[in-house]
Specification:
The protein has helices spanning about 10-15, 70-80, and strands spanning about 30-35, 50-55, 60-65, 85-95, 105. By secondary structure, it is an alpha+beta fold.
Length: about 110
């Protein structure tokens, strides 16, 4: 066992803080639907790591696509905050449900 301040202490803490759960392997990509108020144009796609931008009839924008891990998700959420956008929802979806009919892509 390591003690605080010794090499390996941070790694030991991280392993305790992040227990392995099924489906959390680094190569397991998850699909998310992130909704924000307002319409974003296609030029913002690069800002959101290539996610698909779908304009909704209710005035919201749906960002959808694969996100590699929690760090990447938090990075996208930070960009939303930094742009002053209002976050409506964040939902992990089954990859088979990722394509939604009846919406127009920007």
């Amino acid at each position: 066992m390591t003690t605080p301040g010794t090499p390996g202490a941070a790694t030991a803490r991280q392993e305790r803080a992040m227990p392995h759960t099924p489906g959390t392997e680094p190569d397991h990509i998850r699909i998310y639907h992130i909704r924000v108020k307002g319409h974003l144009g296609p030029r913002w796609r690069r800002w959101f790591d290539g996610m698909t931008i779908i304009l909704q009839a209710n005035g919201e924008t749906l960002l959808t696509g694969p996100i590699a891990d929690q760090a990447a998700l938090h990075g996208i959420l930070t960009r939303i905050r930094d742009l002053g956008l209002i976050l409506v929802s964040v939902i992990e979806v089954d990859p088979e449900q990722a394509n939604m009919p009846g919406v127009s892509e920007a």
